[in-house]
Amino acid sequence: MDPLANDIAVNASERKAPRNDPASFIVQHTATIPSAVTRPLENQLIKLFQLHGKSIWIHLIMAILAIIPISFAGFYSYQNTNQDMTESVLARRLDMSYLVATVLAEKLDRLVDVGVSLSTRVQFQRLVERKEWEGAIKFMESIPVTYSYIDRLVVTDSKGIIVADTPALPGVRGQDFSFRDWYQGVIRTGKPFISKIFKRRAEPQINIVAVAVPIKNREQALLGILMIQVKLESFFQWFRDAMPTPGSVIYIVDQSGQAVFHPQYTERGETAYLGNATAVQHALRGERGTLIIPDLDKNSERVTAFIPVEKYGWGVILEEPAVTAFAARDHQLQRFIVIYGLMLALSMFTAYLFFRAREEARIKTDLTRLVSERTSELEVANKELEAFSYSVSHDLRAPLRSIDGFSRILLDECGNKLNSEHGSHLYRIRAATQRMSKLIDDLLKLSRVTRAEMKRAPVDLSAITQSVIEELASIQPSRKVITVVQPGVTAVGDGPLLRVILENLLGNAWKFTSKIENAQIEFGAQIDEKQATVYFIKDNGAGFNMAYANKLFGAFQRLHGISEFPGTGIGLATVQRIVHRHGGEIWAESIIDQGATFYFTL
C-alpha cells in the first residue's frame, strides 16, 4: 500500500478534541460552585423582593448591566472559535488533497522517467533509426513485467504510424494514431506528454492513460514516439482505500475534466465528465483552495478541497459531507453555548449575591469566598491552558505509533510477499513517522526551554564541552575528529540549559564535518571590544551561505537538504531561546565548504 493511505487515516484519527481545552476545564470545575449559589433563581428572586422591596428593580438593572460584557465576550469568543475551527477543518482537507497530489505527481514522474530512460538509450535509438523493430521490441518487453500497471508499449514513426508494439496485438501495426492527443502533444512540445483518459481500440477495451516520449537521434531529429499505455485500475490501486472518512470522496481528473480515478470508476465503464463542477474548474485553472457548496440532491452542504497537479494539468478533488467534516466543530460549539449559558446564569447569581451582600454580612462573606475560589480556579485554568500545546503534541504520538507499528507488522508478516517497491514504501512510511516523532520531541524541548525555571550558578563550560564531545565520539567511534577545547572556560547561568546550547552547537559541528576527511572542531572564549566574554564553536565543515544567515535561528529553517545532512531544524531555535533567556546574543559567520563559527554571549 502507498504511504498516502495511512497518512490520510492518521489525519482522520487526529480529529479528537484535546483533553485540556478551555471548554473541558469549565465543565470539570463547574461542580465546585457552592450549592447555595445553584438554588433556583425563582426562590432567590422571591427573597430579593422580601429583602429589598422596590429597590429590586435597581438591582435587576445593575445585574443586567453586569452580564452585558460577558454576553458580548461570549458572542465574540463563539464567533472566533467557529471561524478558527472552520479554517482548521478546511486546511486539513486541503492538506489531504495536497498529499494525494504530491504522491500522484511522483508516480507520474516515475512513469515519464521509465519512458525517457528507454527512449534515450543509444542502442534503442539506433534500432529505431534503422527500423529494426524486432530488436526494439526486445528492449521493451521487460518493461510491462517490471511495472505491473503498464499495459503495453508502442512505437510510432514520426508521422504517428504504429511500427512496433509489445505485447503485440494483431492488426495494430500500420495504423495511424496521429489523431491522439499524446501524439499531438509530443509533436507540439517536443517533450514527454501525458494524455487525457481514453478507451483503447484493442480488446478488451479498457480506459487508459498514455505516456508519450519522443525518440530522437544525436542531432535531436525526431525518429519516432514511444507510447506507454497505463492500466488505470492497477495504477490507482494504492489510492482506492484512501478515503479519510465515511461518505468522503477523493477523485482525480485529467486536463479536460474527465475522471481519471473515482471510487465508482470501473476500468471498462464510460468515463465521466466532471468539468462542470466548480472545484474541478478551479483545479484545472491551477488554483488550490476549499469551498463549502450546496448538495442539492441531499439538501445539505459538502466541503470540497481542490488542488492542481500543475506539472501535468490534472486536478485532485476531495469532497465530504459538511455534517461529517464539521462534526467535531459543531459538537465543540454546542458545548461552548451550554457552558456560556451556565456562565451567564452564574454571573446573574453572582450579581445578586453582590447586591444582597450590602445588607447581609453573611452573604458578603460567602461572596468573598466565592470570588477567592474563582480567582484560584482561574489561575489553575491559565496553567492548564499553557499546557495545552504540550497535550496536543503528546496526542500526536498515538497515531504515529499506530502508523509505525502497523507498517512494521506488515514488513514482518508480509515482507516476503511484497515486491521491492512496496517494501520501500513501507520503509519510507516508518522513516517518516520516526522523523515526525523526532520533530515532536524537539518541539517539546523547545517549549520546555521557554518555560523552564532558571537557576543561575557558576558552570564549567570546558568540562561540559569535553563531555559532549566524548558522547559524540562514542556514538561514531570510527570518525577521526581533531577537537580543541580551551581549558578553564566558565560562565554563570543555568547548567542544564547551557549544556543544551553546547549539545546543539557541537552536534551541528560534528554533523556538518561528517564529509570532511580532516575534521576539526574548536571551543573557546574571547574578550570583545566591550570587555564582554564571547564564547565560540568553530568547525571546518560544510558551512553555509551568509546571505541566508537570518534564517538560521528560526524553527524548521534549514540551509541544507535532509538527504545531505539529517535534522529537524529546531536545534538552533532552541539555542537562541536559551541564550536570550540568559540575556545574551548569538550569531554566526561562515564560508561555504570552509566551515562555520557560532558565537554567543551570556
Structure description:
By secondary structure, the chain is of the alpha+beta class. It is 50% helix and 18% strand. The strands form 4 sheets. Strands 1, 2, 3, 4, 5 and 6 form a 6-stranded antiparallel beta sheet that branches. A 5-stranded antiparallel beta sheet has the order 8-7-11-10-9, sandwiched between helices. A 5-stranded mixed beta sheet has the order 13-15-16-18-17. Helix 1 runs antiparallel to helix 4, helix 12 runs antiparallel to helix 13 and helix 15 packs antiparallel against helix 16. The chain is flat and about 105 Å long. The two termini are 52 Å apart.
Shape: flat
| Poorly predicted ranges | 1-42
Strand residue content: 15-25%
Please tell me the overall pLDDT. 79
Number of strand elements: 18
The proportion of residues forming helix, as a percent range, comes to 40-55%
Structural class by helix and strand composition: alpha+beta
Distance between the termini: 52 Å
Main sheet summary:
6 strands, antiparallel
Overall radius of gyration: 34 Å
Q: How many H/I helical runs?
A: 19
